[in-house]
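Hi P.,

Sorry for the delay on this. The queue was packed all week, but I finally got your sequence through. Input first:
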Amino acid sequence: MPRVRTWPKSAEPGFLGSVAVKAGMTHVMMIDDSDSPSKGTEIARAVTILEVPKVYMYGVRFYGTKYLYTQPAAEAYDAALAKKVGINKPGRDLSELKAGAERYTDISVLAFADQGNLGFGNKSVMRFELQLGGKDINEKIAFAEKWLGKEIRASDVVRTGDYVDVTAISKGKGWAGVIKRFGVARNARKATGKIRHVGVLGPWHPAKVMFTVPHSGHMGYNYRTELNKRVLRIGTEKEAPTINVKGGFLNYGVVKNDFIILDGSIPGPSKRLLRFRKSIRSAAPVKEPQINYISIESKQ
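Then the structure:
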């Protein structure tokens, strides 16, 4: 499960992000609504299909300041959903915590993604935490109280045309040499006894190998965040057959649930769970994209 370290600030009550699973890529034909020279014409864009599993909000976490640090202070649960994630102890009563809201500094949402209805056999339940938008803590509590115990769909988090940031774990490539890992130039055949290595490990002084010198080692499987990915379409499970490619997505299968079509590529392989949040930097106006064609030709 990727970790989101920073969340955007929003005065509007609502969820600031959710999770999805990378299914694969295809391409669409759409009208260019940017200010580029091709504005107003039909262009082809590579897109990524994300399948959104069933996501449920099972609790609310209250934060307070203790010893100069912000720490979790209390939690309230929906009893039926909390048992699904292995929480059997009763939480605090939400109405009681709401009455004493002045003692707390912030709240967050506790949710889980049920991957049992995805098409590739992963039955695990993934727990995660979401931040909320709102002017103050009372507004956030009122929003959380309304959603406690309910399903969070993709359309409840983002709209078509919005920009999102996608955090994922990149593909792991195992042990790699300096040529692949850092792009070091190959040595000439007659220069040394080796070709695929660095020419020199450093000067005589300082008499040590600096950390900046390229070395072989672990490559990939890192946290990566792609900024400002445009949401071209949000679809329901009834519309999923319209975007499934013939023969299914490579190494994935077919999409059965709600889905999101993102402009461009994102890190990680197919079947990997990722997180998306509302854009933290984008100031671009939200426009409804006009998609004329979605390719469903086989990618096998």
